[in-house]
Amino acid sequence: MNIFKAPLHIQILVALIVGAVLGIVMNPGTTQFSDPNSEFPLQIQDGKILIVEKDRSAKGELVPVVPPISVTPEQYEKRFDYLPPASDVQTGNVTVKVTERRFRLVEDSTGIAINYSRKYNGHLLMTDDRVASRAELEKKYPVFLAAYDYYRGSLSRLVTITSKWLGDLFLRLLKMVTIPLIVSSLITGVAGLGGTGKLGSMFGKTLGYYFVTSVLAITTGIIMVNLIRPGVGATLPGTGEVTTFGENESLIGIFSGMVDNMIPPNPVAALANGDFLSIISFSILFGVFIVRSNAVTRDTMTSFFNAFFEVIMGLTMFIIHLAPMGVLAFMTYATASQGIEIFGTLAWYMLTVFLALMVHGLITMPLILKFVAKRSPIAYMRALSPALMTAFSTASSNGTLPLTMTSVENNAGISNRTSSFVLPLGATINMDGTALYEAVAVLFIAQATAGFELSLSTQIIVAITALLASIGAAGIPHAGLVMMAIVLQAVGLPLDAQGVIIAVDRVLDMCRTAINVWSDSCGCAVVERLTANDVEQTPVVEPTPA
């Protein structure tokens, strides 16, 4: 069998497997310190407690392993409750035993990632950071410089740098056609509806679908986390250097920003900056007023955007044929750059998220397809397999949008009027997998936090906040982390707990992105079925493999 002549979904599947295997082989693993055990004294400086863990650099100098941490006694008691109390530190010579010290360095085209794990008095801590160059590494983390110089000559470094660069190049190609594809397809789709009443009908049914599936996803996550209880008895790894996201954000602030983004003061700037919500709202309004124009103008503009859409689709199909190479690169990088140690620590948590996502993706959504959309779930999933596997490997639903639209229309027989409306909107505000993930993550942290009362009312607050934040957080940098911060604040959990989740975020991000894209794609079939009487349609053809 010639793999290059195989269907696209087979090529992508092979690329997925080969990339995963290659990445596992090329994973540099972790390096143990020559002396894995050490200790350091806690110091008082200007009324604050100074935590400085030191070791020898390549030059033989005694330097901090990680940047020193200076905290007030109150902050110390809150963040480091596993260390001697602040009163002891202030009155005597207190030392901290450091054991099981190991680290991992991974370089890609954007910089050098450092993961340093150790135990302070038996409590696991992790520090994750990224520097841009060797010079910055020497300045900030000189202890790791000798190991990096050895790593520079390895095949593993060459593979991670090359695969990240190739993967990003493929994603850039997809993103290059995403905005023109959204604008042309949305305008032609809205203009093809023939009336604002039909647009309103489709809009209402689309939002109704998004709301129902998001509630079902969050409910599934909450049920699963209560059944497995992954946080009960768990010792969460802390971090010596915590970066918090969204600590000043609120639901009101996010929704205010979202409403503002719906009305772009400069549509051209919105196109240039890739502001999806602005682009979608402007394109819908533009399509509506094409419909309301006189016959000559309507025919001219419709012909222009139909021609534009045809050209963009041709370019999109060319890029899509490169998908196997992009998936191969992304999977190689993902598996080559991830350490496996933290996965053992957070195994029950990851299993809970994974099982909840699988229930939503393989049971809930197929049931909706079967009984609401009247589609074969297996055939529909086969038709969407290129988009789902690409979403999994890239962890980008926006970047996968061109491939999703192509799969839905060409393989699943969904009309352009439906896909051009449902998919861009879904990629912006419908995030079933993300909402489920955040609900599970917050409840996991709550279960593992000593003294925290996890009542039914608290879980309801988590569910409501996760639902609202999943809608409002679209388009915000670090959207998932900002969203998690909002949910944590809603129930009174510390923002430092984000450090626990970030360690395994990449792998789970791949899973939840695939579910996000699957939910959006199923929404096309549902809306197509529910709006079948709005316009004349050709008979629905069962999807065929890509």
Structure overview:
The structure is a single chain. The protein has helices at residues 8-26, 73-79, 86-91, 134-140, 145-151, 155-193, 196-228, 251-262, 267-273, 276-291, 295-320, 323-337, 341-345, 347-371, 377-394, 397-411, 416-429, 432-448, 456-472, 479-491, 498-502, 505-530; strands at 31-32, 38-41, 43-45, 48-51, 54-56, 62-64, 69-71, 95-108, 111-120, 123-131. The protein has 546 residues and is of the alpha+beta class. Strands 1, 2, 8, 9 and 10 form a 5-stranded antiparallel beta sheet that branches. A hairpin with a 2-residue loop joins strand 9 and strand 10. Helix 7 (196-228) crosses helix 22, helix 14 (347-371) packs antiparallel against helix 18 and helix 15 packs antiparallel against helix 22 (505-530). The longest helix has 39 residues, at 155-193. The radius of gyration is 25 Å and the shape is globular. It starts with 7 loop residues before the first helix and ends in a 16-residue tail after the last helix. Mean pLDDT is 85; it is low at 239-246 and 536-542.
